């Protein structure tokens, strides 16, 4: 039952339906007729902006907060904030707006003691969780039951989320809830083997007992998982030291650096598979290519270059590495307002981070990236021209497919190509454009 008059209740119900369905124009019209509906509460204590956050109705939220910024802090009867609702519902654009434009408490907790990060972690909303963390969300926050975001992620088997949480400074791998269970115990008990093995490799104590005096090993359903956890733990012991003598910090960071950290690497590669190239986005190209597809085509084209003149293997590797840092910092173009020197620093740091996941190739990946940036070898010069050629070839394809003009890309590369086969390839592309 809604609070207030029947007529107002009916209007409010109509407003809520528009907001939950992300129909801002209908919602705006109702509010224009009766602005008091913005403060009208339903039986759960929610007001219009809460339902807008639930439905991802960003235009309505922007309109409301423009004149009523204090509503960004409104909570319902269970203590759910606007940011918390948007985070739990998975509305990235709403979360981004609230964190960047409003006075929100990223660490606000509801009546159960749960924060926005708890819900993002539970639902494996990687992008939202990352944004919350970047804006100061506490990674070790515990609810009224002692459960932290990592407990929720581990219980659901969200490997990538566990990886993200564990990468944060100060993250505690052996944080225990009120029952004494760590994330590792929950992962093992719920048969999320991959998550459990990852946690063990990150230093989670396989011998830690909960209040029932059971360890993660006691919850193993198979001998195979028990063996894998023991193997993971043994890899963390520095030579000449007993595992039991290691402190928590040392257990977390005493990695076996001879092995690949596969899950953070996979996350980075996944980002590249879905990261749309900024230049096409700025020019409103429908369905623009991703960074990964750009690098893949470059790598294939690199295999067609003259092996008498170039180290083809090196060219292929360079093509696959040259934009890898964008997985972390994004595809930064001149229109983004970032200076060339700052862009270099950001990408260099990102490349160092990503290459650290593959210790045996770390130096090679960094060297290839640096050669490309500095155009210091004939292979780097060739790959740089290949990069620009792929861009103009893609521009031609989009012009023909969508009947749009992308002249900027052709003008910016005039006179850029200095060696074959790029000179000939470029002439052929421009010839097709002018037909």
Word description of this protein:
The chain has 435 residues and is mainly alpha-helical. The protein has two domains: 1-246, Ankyrin repeat-containing domain (Serine Threonine Protein Phosphatase 5, Tetratricopeptide repeat, Alpha Horseshoe), CATH 1.25.40.20; 248-433, Hypothetical protein af1432 (Orthogonal Bundle), CATH 1.10.3210. Helix content is 56%, strand content 0%. The protein has helices spanning 6-20, 24-33, 48-55, 58-67, 82-89, 92-101, 116-122, 126-134, 149-156, 159-166, 183-189, 193-201, 223-235, 248-253, 262-274, 278-282, 291-302, 312-321, 326-329, 340-355, 362-374, 378-402, 407-411, 422-433. Helix 1 (6-20) runs parallel beside helix 3, helix 5 packs antiparallel against helix 6 and helix 11 runs antiparallel to helix 12 (193-201). The longest helix has 25 residues, at 378-402. It is flat, with a radius of gyration of 26 Å. The model is unreliable at 237-258 (pLDDT under 50).
Protein topology:
Elements: H1 6-20, H2 24-33, H3 48-55, H4 58-67, H5 82-89, H6 92-101, H7 116-122, H8 126-134, H9 149-156, H10 159-166, H11 183-189, H12 193-201, H13 223-235, H14 248-253, H15 262-274, H16 278-282, H17 291-302, H18 312-321, H19 326-329, H20 340-355, H21 362-374, H22 378-402, H23 407-411, H24 422-433
Shape: flat
Main β-sheet description: none
Number of strands: 0
Give the structural class.
Answer: mainly alpha
CATH topology grouping of the largest domain? Serine Threonine Protein Phosphatase 5, Tetratricopeptide repeat
How far the N terminus sits from the C terminus, by CA atoms, comes to 68 Å
Write the CATH architecture name of the largest domain.
Alpha Horseshoe
Oligomer: single chain
Q: How much helicity do the residues have?
A: 55-70%
**Number of helical runs?**
24
CATH superfamily of the largest domain: Ankyrin repeat-containing domain
Helices and strands, in order, run as HHHHHHHHHHHHHHHHHHHHHHHH
Q: What integer is the average pLDDT?
A: 90
Proportion of beta-strand residues: under 5%
* Poorly predicted tracts of residues: 237-258
The CATH class of the largest domain turns out to be: Mainly Alpha
